[in-house]
Amino acid sequence: MTVTVRSLLELEEAHLVCVAGASGLDRAICRVHVSEMLDPTLWMKGGEFLLTTGIRLVDDAVIHEYLDRLCDHGIAGVGFSTGNTFGMHRRVPPAFIARAESRGLPVLDVPIEASYVQISEFVSAHLAAEQHRLTQRAFDAQRRLSSAALTVRGRTEVVRLLASLVNGWAAVTTATGRVIDVFPSSARRRLDVLEADLLRVRDTGAVASVSDTCGGSIGIHPLGAPGNVRRILVVSKESAFDAFDQMVTASAVALLSFETEQQLCLSPQRAAASDVLGAVLLRAKTLESQIERAAAGLGLNPRKLLRVARISAPRARAKAVARLVHDVFSAREITSVTVTEHDAKSTYSLIVQEQEPVEGALRDLVTRLDGDDSRMGISSPVALADIELAHRQASVALAQAMRTSPRSAVAFDELSAYHSIIGLVAPREIDAVTATILSPVDRLDGGADGGLYKETLKVFLAHNGRWESAARELGIHRQTLSKRIASIERHIGSNLESPDTRMALWFALQARAASRNF
Questions:
Q1: Residues in Cβ contact with 149 at an 8 Å cutoff, skipping those fewer than 6 apart
Q2: pLDDT digit string (tens) for 257-311?
Q3: What three-state secondary structure class fits 438?
Q4: Angle between helices 467-474 and 452-462 (to 10 degrees)
Q5: Residue 368 in 3-state DSSP?
Q6: How far apart are CA 67 and CA 75, in angstroms?
Q7: In this structure, what are the phi and psi dihedrals at residue 510, rounded to the nearest 5 degrees?
Q8: Pairing relation of β-strands 17-20 and 217-223?
């Protein structure tokens, strides 16, 4: 129970009497202050009960100025000592009573026999008892919050209990402002107007206090380790937060931050598990039961689609890539897995749950890696059972991004038809087809990669058999081009005027180039 000016009237042995400002008797007292200064406010913070003899208050104008100064400073009340010794006032001056009454300031007549020490000890004892009650109440609430955090629905139960304890509402959102838990549910609509405040807390990592349109108080608290805002707690009530509210909110912040870090932090153990289990998911011919167990261990929802991406990041370290991927998607509560490909230098595979469209986030992610030479290939959204197919799609898209695309990221859906086919066929089978089709041209070049005849054939087909433009790109005479094409036709045993022949050769050339880039 708060110590008020009215509480002093319970001190019967002091014989205190209220002579003015009865309407303000319920003002809270934070401490007792004794002063005979005409301006004691220099040593006061507000909320004090001032004890004085008023020995220097002999003029009505001085009294009015004195009381106005005290009221403006926000003191709780005045104890005016009266008596017939030391030049004291025998009674509280009428001007003092009238001015205090007009300002609503409670004034108690303190007889000379009443001890200031007695009054001060009374207030101190009551304040100490109040602090003890507050501490005990907060401790009990903290135990209840801890018990709630240990239940199956820990975060949800903590939010519900916190809202009840502060007699208001509470919510937890992602770092981007998406609501995860809210109690009561009707408070969800009140979060819509806080979007800018939530983003400010996410960016600064500092607690924010705002007022709602109804005059209530709203506290916005970052959750997570210092310097890493992973979620946000919003607490609100219709009045100002008191000390109890602040103490239980601080406990909830600690519990929710711990839970958030456990769930979202990329620990070395979690990174290692992701590496191993992710490789199991992406491995060809992995059994369906193994895929399901690996996905469960990684927290992937088997009923939702996912995407696979492959990143080539020559200048980025493996730990930095895994950390960046985790931070980008954990802020949106999206499950992600980073796999370091040990048989491909500086190449990483990502598995991302498609809880919401993630292609844009993947494209943005590759631009944040060290160096301008980082490239990414992104698969189509697929079911868990088709994850190995998605890995092949991402591989083909990455090869295209590294070979010809000026962009840092290429999605499989953007590729031409022959690249789409490559993505659906195992690399060994593609190599077998290309070797068969191109073997006559390989012999013409003596087995050299990028030989004269293969380059001539590629340019000729790229120009759809137009002699002049193909010869111009190759920098040779048309007659020279004609002789080379004739030689190729003799070795493959077919005429390049045939659409089927041209299509097969073009596909084989593109497929070989793609397969050598992943």
A1: 155, 157, 158, 255, 256, 259
A2: 998 888 777 777 777 878 888 888 888 777 888 888 888 888 888 889 999 999 9
A3: helix
A4: 140
A5: coil
A6: 10
A7: -70, -40
A8: unpaired
